[in-house]
Specification:
Layout (H helix, E strand, L loop, with lengths): L1 E7 L3 H11 L8 E7 L2 H10 L4 E5 L10 E3 L5 E3 L5 E5 L9 E4 L5 H9 L4 E4 L5 H7 L4 E4 L11 E6 H8 L7 E9 L4 H20 L1 H10 L7 H11 L9 H16 L17 H6 L2
Parallel strand pairs: 1-2, 1-3, 7-8, 7-9
Antiparallel strand pairs: 3-11, 4-11, 5-11, 6-9, 6-10
Length: 288
C-alpha cells in the first residue's frame, strides 16, 4: 500500500484526532499512514518546503502554500469565545513597542497579533518556552497557545484575549476563530487524496465518539502533557463535533482570515477556502 506521511503537532487535540489510526481503529485498503509530531511553526515551515503528504498547519499559513497543498475539511481547531492569550507579568504596563514572544510567524495568532499591535517587537519561540520567557523578563509579554492557555504561573495575568482581537477584525458576522487545520499535497493522485481525507475524517469522528476511552489510553501511555481533567477541558475546546467536518460558517471564518492577511499585505494573492478543498465528488462521478 502507498504510505502517506502525516505530520501533526504534539498538543493533545492533534494527538487525540490522529490516534485512532495509530491504534488501528481506522484503516484503509489502499493507503498506510506514518506520523511525525512537531511544534506548529516547524510544521508550517515544513509545509512551505512540501515535506509531508498531509500536515497540520495554521490557517494563517495556507495562502502561502495553496498552490502545492489542498485544504482538508477535517481535524480542524476553532475557538468559540476562547483562544490564545496574550499574557504579561502581574502589574506590568505594556508600552506600544513592547517585546513579545509568539509561537511562529505563520500562525494565525501571530497574524492577528500583528494587526492589533503593529509597533510591538516580536521574537518567535517554541510555544513551550513562551511562559518562561515572560517570567524571566526576556520578553515583556507572550501569546500562549495549546494546553498552555489552561494554566500558567500566578505571577502572570492575561493582558488580552486573542478572541477579542478576532472579534474586532472579523466584521459584523459572528464567526469562530480559525486556528489550525490540515492540508494534503496536491501531487498525490486525487483518489489517494480523497481516501486520505476519508480516513482522517473517520479517525476524528471515531475519536470523538470514544473520547473517554481514548483519553484514558492517552493518559496511560503518557502521550499528552496534561492530566485527565485538563485533557477533558482541552478536548472540549479544540477536538469536538466541530472538528470533524468544516461547516459553512467555519469556511466563512477561514475566508475572513485570508482577507485580513491579504489586505494587510501578508499574502500576495486573495484566495478562498472552498475552491481549495478536495473535490470528493470526483469519486462519485467516476464510479457512477
Amino acid at each position: 500500500m502507498k504510505n502517506i506521511s502525516v505530520a501533526h503537532s504534539p498538543d493533545a487535540d492533534d494527538i487525540f484526532m490522529y490516534q485512532a489510526i495509530k491504534f488501528g481503529w481506522i484503516g484503509s485498503k489502499i493507503l498506510s499512514f506514518s506520523n511525525t509530531a512537531a511544534d506548529i511553526q516547524t510544521l508550517n515551515y515544513e509545509a512551505l518546503k512540501g515535506t509531508y503528504d498531509a500536515t497540520a498547519i495554521s490557517f494563517g499559513l495556507y495562502p502561502l502554500i495553496y498552490e502545492d497543498y489542498a485544504l482538508l475539511r477535517t481535524a480542524v481547531s476553532f475557538g468559540e469565545g476562547y483562544g490564545p492569550k496574550l499574557i504579561k507579568k502581574n502589574g506590568a504596563v505594556l508600552k506600544p513597542n513592547f517585546k513579545v514572544a509568539l509561537s511562529g510567524e505563520h500562525t494565525t495568532n501571530a497574524m492577528l497579533f500583528r494587526l492589533a499591535y503593529p509597533k510591538a517587537r516580536i521574537v518567535y519561540k517554541n510555544f513551550l518556552e513562551i511562559e518562561s520567557a515572560v517570567l524571566s523578563g526576556e520578553v515583556d509579554a507572550g501569546v500562549l497557545i495549546h494546553e498552555s492557555i489552561l494554566s500558567f504561573s500566578s505571577e502572570l495575568c492575561v493582558e488580552r484575549e486573542l478572541w477579542d482581537i478576532w472579534c474586532e477584525f472579523r466584521g459584523d458576522e459572528s464567526l469562530p476563530l480559525p486556528l489550525g487545520g490540515m492540508a494534503v499535497r496536491r501531487s498525490l493522485p486525487l483518489s489517494d487524496a480523497i481516501e486520505c481525507e476519508r480516513v482522517l475524517t473517520k479517525a476524528v469522528e471515531v475519536a470523538n465518539s470514544n473520547k473517554k476511552l481514548l483519553s484514558k489510553m492517552l493518559i496511560e501511555r503518557n502521550l499528552v502533557r496534561v492530566d485527565d481533567k485538563k485533557l477533558d477541558v482541552y478536548l472540549n475546546l479544540y477536538a469536538n463535533d466541530n472538528s470533524i467536518n468544516m461547516s459553512e460558517i467555519q469556511l466563512k471564518a477561514v475566508n475572513r482570515v485570508f482577507e485580513l492577511g491579504f489586505e494587510a499585505g501578508f499574502y500576495p494573492n486573495l484566495i478562498k477556502a472552498e475552491p481549495n478543498l478536495i473535490p470528493t465528488e470526483y469519486l462519485e462521478s467516476r464510479n457512477a
